[in-house]
Fold this protein.
Amino acid sequence: MANKASQINLAATIAYISSERYPHHNTNTQQIIKNVSSLRAVGVGIDLIVPRQAAMYLANDAQLEAAICNYYNVPPGLGIKQTGLFPATRLQLDKYLHPIFAIIYCRLIKGYDVIYTRNIFTAILLALFGVKFMFETYQRLGDTKPRFIKLLTKQAKKGRMLGMVLHSNVAAESMRGVGFPSEKLLVLHNGVDNSDMLPILTKTAARQQLKLDLNARYVVYTGNMQRNKCVEVVVDIAAYTPEINYLLVGAKPDDIVRLTAYCEAKKAKNVSLVERQPVNMVSQYLYAADALIIPPAAAPMQSFGKTVLPFKLFPYLAAGRPIIAPDQADMQELLRSDKNGLLVPPDAPEQNAKAIRALFSDEKMMQKLATNAAETSRALTWEARALRFKSWLAGH
């Protein structure tokens, strides 16, 4: 097994099949690109297999790769291969067609040893065809899709599935709950790409660039704002703390309409909504903040299951600002209240507002949380994550 693993490390024998549109603002596309780029950087032989892109349908592999590398701020060399005639579009037919073409391409034409994916339909096909594969997810699929995980469990026990990569211990525990072998679960928290945080700015410099009030207090949220993110909870908190400004960055036009109406209903005049920003602009908003917030609500993880240890936490930590987050199991994996974050009860906006007001009145605590957040992020890089994966792979 060790010799086989060495071959995998040194040659491009892992195919990562993704059915996403690239480049795209969705967080999962950023996670995939950062993951593949970092794995190749540490010597893991892996290629990214994607459907043809509607916006660049006639582009060759090199042209598409250049566009992707530029958009996601990663160095050249992703090993991108395009398959199929059906482009990735909003209709999402490629979610089902691309896995079929990609598996044929990877196994019958190119002969990759292992296939790696985050796509559930792809994983189902791989399990049914008996192809050696790995699956990655951030979700608690043992709770939400137990039949699917039981299918993967059978493949893992037969040796056809090398293992599963999880973004949190919470997700891993969900898999154990339906019988997936613990020894085949690898928990890898996501990471931060420090180049995305450049240039490093002081709070004053960031605010000057963004034309923000240098003397005001700002709590900043960055990321998606669809309903399952429960950003409304931040507006509720804002209504209880009119002396603090809240910047919500990353809204789509329909989010702005919905949240503007909600702010008006709550009489929260201290909330500003900002449309989606490029990665390098997002870091400016992080640096401009006095504190950063993840909506203190239970529903994103407990009800919707779409937010478990959110991707935004990692640049939040790297920005070196106090982080306000819900006191839930996923956050507790990386945050400790009064050490590197402020964990508050979910769905308690009035209580949360009091905690935030108390934090803002304690400059010593603010500095402590900021310093410790930055220190926490130093071990959470994509390179460190990739090296852990490589070490795990060597045992398989």
The chain has a mean pLDDT of 93. The two ends are 6 Å apart (CA to CA). The first helix runs from residue 2 to 10.
